[in-house]
Amino acid sequence: MKYLVTGAAGFIGSNLIKKLNDNGHTNIVCVDDISQNNLQNIHGLEYADFISKADFETLYHEEFDTIFHLGAISNTRASNWQDIYQNNIVFTKKLFDMIRHRNFVFASSASVYGDSTNNQELAVNETPKNLYATSKLMCDNWLRHQGCQYQSWRFFNVYGKRETSKLDSNSASPYTTFKQQAITKGKITLFEGSNKILRDFISVDDVVEVMYQKHKHSDSFVSNLGTGSTASFKDWAKIIADKYNATIDYVDFPKDLIKGYQYYTCSNNSNLNTIIDYKFKTIQEWFDQND
C-alpha cells in the first residue's frame, strides 16, 4: 500500500503516520511545510519521502492507494479568502482528481455547524461562522457530487499528544494549553464563563483509529467524528489543575473572539453509529491512561 498524507507533520497527521507505522506501513509520502519544528514533530517515524506542498504540486505524478488529506489553512481567524480558497478548496480538488475510484480520506470539521445544537449532517444545520469552516463545507458539498469514493470526517474538538507545535498559534486544545500553563507557571488561565462553553472533545487516538479502520472500506460518506458527549473548558482546567497542583486564574472573555467563536459542539452520531461500532474515551478516561 502506498499512502499520501498531507499536513503530515501536524498534530493529527503525525499521529496518523504513527498509526500507519504501528500497522506495518512505511511507504508514506508526507506533504507539509518543511521546517525544523515540523521535522521534529515526525522524528522517529518511518516514511518514504517528505516534500513541501509547492514541490508536490509541481513534481509529483505518482499513484497512491490512499490519500489522507489533512492539510489546510486551519486558523479560524484567517481572513484572506483567496489564500483559503486556493489552499483548502482548489488543492483538495487536485488531490481528489489524482485518486478517483480509490481511497480519498478528507479532514472536514464540525465548525461547519457554527452554534447549531443539532450537529447532524443536514444542510439546515450547517451555519459556518468563519472562512475556514466555509471552505470545509464547500469541499464536503463538492465531494458529495463526484460519484466517486470518498470519506469525509467532520472532526470535533481533537486533543492529545504531538500537539505542542500548535501552542505558538494559540490553536492547541485545552489539554495541551492548560498542561503547559500548569507545568510552567503553576496556574491555568481560564475565560470567565468557561463552564458554559461546552465542546465535544475527542482524543486524537480515537480519531486516527477510526480513520484507519474505515479507510480500506468502499463506503462513501460525510460523517461526524466526535464522541457524542460534551465537557467544558472548566472541566479540563480542573482535571489538569488537580494533577499538577496548579491554580485557576479567571480572565475576561476576549472581545475579538466573540463573533466567530463556537460556544457549543456535540456530535450527533446517528450516522456515525451506522458506519462503525466504536467506544470513545471520555476526557477523564483518556487523561487517566495517558498523563
Can you characterise this structure?
The protein has 291 residues and is an alpha/beta fold. It folds into 2 domains: 3-158 and 203-225, 3-Layer(aba) Sandwich (Rossmann fold), CATH 3.40.50; 160-200 and 229-266 and 282-290, UDP-galactose 4-epimerase, domain 1 (Alpha-Beta Complex), CATH 3.90.25. It has helices at residues 11-22, 36-41, 53-59, 81-98, 131-144, 174-185, 204-214, 233-244, 272-275, 283-290; strands at 3-6, 28-31, 49-51, 66-69, 103-109, 151-155, 157-159, 187-191, 198-199, 201-203, 221-225, 231-232, 247-251. α1 (11-22) links the parallel β1 (3-6) and β2. The chain is globular and about 55 Å long.
Short recap of the structure:
The chain has helices at 11-22, 36-41, 53-59, 81-98, 131-144, 174-185, 204-214, 233-244, 272-275, 283-290, and strands at residues 3-6, 28-31, 49-51, 66-69, 103-109, 151-155, 157-159, 187-191, 198-199, 201-203, 221-225, 231-232, 247-251. The chain is an alpha/beta fold and 291 residues long.
CATH architecture of the largest domain: 3-Layer(aba) Sandwich
CATH class of the largest domain reads Alpha Beta
Q: Give the distance, in angstroms, between the N- and C-terminal Cα atoms.
A: 34 Å
What is the number of helices? 10
Which structural class fits the helix and strand makeup?
A: alpha/beta
Number of E strands: 13
Order of strands in the sheet with most strands: 3-2-1-4-5-6-11
